[in-house]
Write a structure and sequence with these properties.
By secondary structure, this protein is mainly β. The protein contains no helices and 16 strands. Strands 2, 3, 4, 5, 6, 7, 8, 9, 11, 12 and 15 form an 11-stranded antiparallel sheet that branches.
Length: 201
């Protein structure tokens, strides 16, 4: 009988601090120009759903930036990110696509926007049973979290990576595997996991 096991290979590009919008002046309550290296046609489709960073040259701590796009499930989402004081503000929402970033107020100086390192990658968006995995480490240890349904869904499993670059781990999943009734997602920090192949049925 043919096997019904399938696989998904997950890896994520390094963060690009101005990959969405390069540093430029932004008008009062105006949109940033989506034209960085990650952009195409005025929008961004990320390699994996991830968070957004916004770098302010001036003090934008009393300002905010409204980010519009879709999340890891394909649902339309909006996030308000408070600006930084001559530094980087980091969002927590994960975006699979990004349509616009708009300043709320008048930024004090140039502003750029890019991709962050927090990843929530889909294994499979339907009912699935996780049967196994093969992970390749980076030089920094971290925690990999398996969630059901979305980035904020229930935690079904976690494991810690090893901080030795290019070494591999293949944690055992007992019995018939772990059930994800509403789809499965892998949450991790890009700098702490090089890649992971998951096997599911």
């Amino acid at each position: 009988m043919a096997s019904d096991v399938q696989s998904t290979f997950i890896t994520a590009a390094v963060a690009d601090t101005n990959g969405i919008s390069v540093a430029a002046a932004v008008g009062n309550n105006a949109a940033l120009t989506i034209g960085g290296a990650l952009a195409s046609g005025g929008a961004v489709v990320f390699d994996q759903p991830r968070n957004i960073t916004i770098l302010s040259a001036g003090n934008d701590s009393s300002k905010s930036f409204t980010v519009v796009g879709t999340d890891e499930t394909g649902t339309a989402v909006t996030e308000s990110i408070t600006g930084g004081n001559a530094g980087t503000a980091t969002g927590t929402q994960h975006f699979a696509t990004l349509a616009s970033i708009t300043a709320v107020g008048n930024p004090a100086g140039d502003v750029s926007a890019g991709s962050g390192t927090s990843i929530v990658a889909p294994m499979f968006k339907g009912r699935m049973r996780l049967r196994g995995m093969y992970a390749v480490n980076t030089g920094t240890a971290g925690t990999v979290t398996f969630r059901e349904g979305s980035a904020s869904g229930g935690i079904r499993m976690q494991f810690n990576t090893v901080g030795t670059a290019d070494t591999a781990e293949y944690p055992d999943i007992p019995d018939d595997g772990l059930m994800f009734k509403e789809g499965g997602y892998v949450a991790y920090t890009q700098t702490k996991l090089s890649s992971i192949t998951v096997f599911y049925a």
